[in-house]
Specification:
- The chain is α/β, with parallel strands linked by helices.
- Among the domains are: 110 residues, no CATH class; 210 residues, ABC transporter type 1, transmembrane domain (ABC transporter transmembrane region fold, Up-down Bundle).
- The protein has a six-stranded mixed sheet. A four-stranded antiparallel sheet has the order 2-1-4-5, with no helix packed on it.
- A hairpin with a 2-residue loop joins strand 4 and strand 5.
- It starts with a helix and ends with a helix.
């Protein structure tokens, strides 16, 4: 049951509701038994028309004899018709109370089930926000989405949805078994021999469900990944006539998913008919064995009315037993989804929020790398980096792809933590700062503009949600975005679509710059912010960047070396190490790697 520990943890917040559910369930079961118990005196009245001598039982625990005695006494006083009326009233009242408490049990259980799923979904999303960026480079986006959607839904239906059955059905079975033992211990002994056998058979069939469910979830993740890649790369797919290739890939995965899910469904659907068939087999055994006890009519044997009551009660155990076996199958299927969710929830958060850390209220002096190294998955990306970035200076990072430029910049906002050496900000180890306060001092403009399906105003104010309209407009002006925004039909209230696809590349990049400007941080990280733009857009964006960089400490990653000629210092990286450093003029005189890069781009 350890794999369900998180579900049980959520249930702790609903102790009162669980107790009420238990009480209502017991009352529902008890009144259900009373409604069936009322049939015995009814049958006695109908079939035993001759008068019999009434003998009061020595103990009220002999329930059937006590009921017969009381009904017989009532008949002698009030007559048969009145007795039938009383029995009908008792049965109707019992059935009413049974269903009333049955409804109340659902009434208190429903918020428990919904809350468990809501908490699980919220905790998973919160963990996704906490996980380091490196975690997602190892995961398919579609697989993460599958865990957030399909696996949560599977837990909702297969695990949380069976909470009712896991409490009420065993309780129902237990109460009925106690009643059966009370009526006939000898016949119940026969029952206890065969019930474990049926449980064993059902358990053997359900074992493979967890494995198949896990494979199914993986296949669904692959399917969603293919779909996500298709939607984002549709222009390339059409341009290269790759529709057939993607279609074959999708169909193959889809067919695999069909066969796996079909196999799972067949086994799950087997639970109910199999448990009913095994239950009827046991019932027939009871009919034969119990019939012998009645016919033998020896001391300790069953009387006819007791045997009828026994059969009626046992028939009521079949349905909860069926439901319980189905719940067991569902739990096995849902356990695979829980395991996939737990894989994310238990993932190591390598960059922790230091809740007791120093609050970084301002940036005053310098960012300093001291013998910094960084490795990921046993691959060394940065080695022995020594670099000091004074406040107000612009540092440019250049080098070939894979040299470690983006990784070095990502260490400053702690997207990764150094694995060797120290990274200091104003003389304090970056890990000693509160993560939130550290990132509050930094803005980033990336090569690919990251925008959200929202209005222009909300995208600009992402880092400052309480910004006034005047502040948003001023940031747009600094970013050279104000004019094109005003030309939109709804201005700043214009929705820009998924990933900002209603805007051009230059417009999207200027919005990200406006977002960074509005946050107004002392530290800027510009990751090849103009490399994907046309000449005209690049000029507008570069002007916006120049406006934004004034009086700020900037770390600029650039492939277009013409944009960083005026940087205070240029750092040249190769294979994770600093191979050259200096101003543009100094590096050109050194006749080294930087000069070769410049000449390759024909920078004059």
């Amino acid at each position: 049951m350890k794999k369900y520990s998180r579900i049980f943890k959520y249930l702790q917040f609903h102790t009162t509701n669980i107790v009420l559910y238990f009480i209502f369930s017991v009352l529902s079961i008890v009144f259900g038994l009373i409604s069936f118990a009322g049939l015995i005196p009814f049958l006695n009245i109908i079939f035993k028309k001759e008068k019999v001598e009434l003998v009061k039982p020595s103990s009220t625990f002999d329930v059937l004899k006590y009921i017969n005695y009381e009904i017989g006494t009532y008949i002698q006083i009030h007559g048969t018709i009145y007795a039938l009326g009383l029995i009908c009233i008792i049965i109707i009242s019992a059935v009413f109370l049974k269903n009333l408490f049955y409804y109340l049990s659902f009434y208190v259980l429903s918020p428990i089930k919904m809350n468990v799923v809501t908490r699980l979904r919220a905790e998973l999303y919160h963990k996704l926000l906490q996980l380091p960026i490196g975690f997602f480079t190892e995961q398919r986006k579609g697989d993460v989405m599958s865990r957030m959607t399909n696996d949560i839904a599977e837990i909702e239906t297969s695990v949380v949805g069976t909470l009712e059955g896991l409490i009420k059905d065993p309780l129902n079975v237990l109460v009925i078994l106690i009643a059966l033992i009370w009526i006939s211990p000898a016949l119940s002994l026969f029952l206890f021999i065969f019930l474990p056998i049926t449980g064993f058979i059902i358990g053997r069939i359900s074992r493979s469900l967890k494995k198949d469910s896990n494979i199914s979830a993986i296949k669904l993740g692959e399917l969603l990944s293919t779909l996500e890649e298709t939607l984002t790369g549709l222009r390339v797919i059409k341009a290269f006539n790759a529709e057939k290739l993607l279609k074959e890939k999708f169909v193959a995965t889809n067919d695999d998913l069909f066969h796996i899910r079909n196999r799972i469904q067949i086994r799950r659907d087997l639970a109910s008919p199999l448990s009913e068939f095994l239950g009827v087999m046991v019932l027939c055994g009871i009919l034969w064995f119990g019939g012998n006890l009645v016919l033998a009519n020896h001391s300790g044997g069953l009387e006819a009315d007791g045997f009828i009551m026994y059969i009626i009660l046992f028939s009521q155990i079949i349905q909860p037993a069926k439901s319980l076996s189905t719940s067991f199958y569902n739990m096995q299927k849902g356990s695979a989804a829980i395991a996939r969710i737990e894989e994310i929830l238990q993932a190591n958060v390598k960059v922790d929020e230091n809740t007791n850390g120093v609050q970084m209220l301002s940036f005053n002096h310098a960012i300093e790398f001291k013998n910094v190294s960084f490795s990921y998955e046993e691959v060394t990306i940065l080695k022995n980096i020594n670099l000091k970035i004074e406040k107000g200076k612009t540092i440019a990072l250049v080098g070939s792809s894979g040299a470690g430029k983006s990784t070095l910049a990502d260490l400053v906002p702690r997207f990764h933590d150094v694995t060797g050496g120290e990274l200091l900000v104003d003389g304090v180890n970056i890990k000693d700062y509160s993560l939130h306060s550290l990132r509050k001092q930094i803005s980033i403009v990336t090569q690919e503009p990251i925008l959200f399906n929202d209005t222009i105003a909300n995208n600009i104010s992402l880092g400052k949600p309480n910004a006034s309209q005047a502040e948003i407009e001023q940031a747009a002006k600094v970013a050279n975005a104000y004019n094109f925004i005003q030309q939109k039909e709804e201005g700043f209230a214009t929705n820009i679509g998924d990933r900002g696809n209603k805007l051009s590349g230059g417009e999207k990049q200027r919005l990200t710059i406006a977002r960074a400007v509005l946050k107004n941080p002392p530290i800027l990280i510009l990751d090849e912010a103009t490399s994907s733009l046309d000449t005209e857009s690049e000029r507008l964006v570069q002007d916006a960047i120049n406006n934004m960089m004034q009086n700020r400490t900037s770390i600029v990653i650039a492939h277009r070396l013409s944009t960083i000629r005026h940087a205070d210092e240029i750092i040249v990286l190769q294979k994770g190490e600093i191979v050259e450093r200096g101003t543009h003029d100094v590096l050109m005189q050194n006749n080294g790697m930087y000069k070769r890069l410049v000449e390759m781009q024909e920078v004059k």
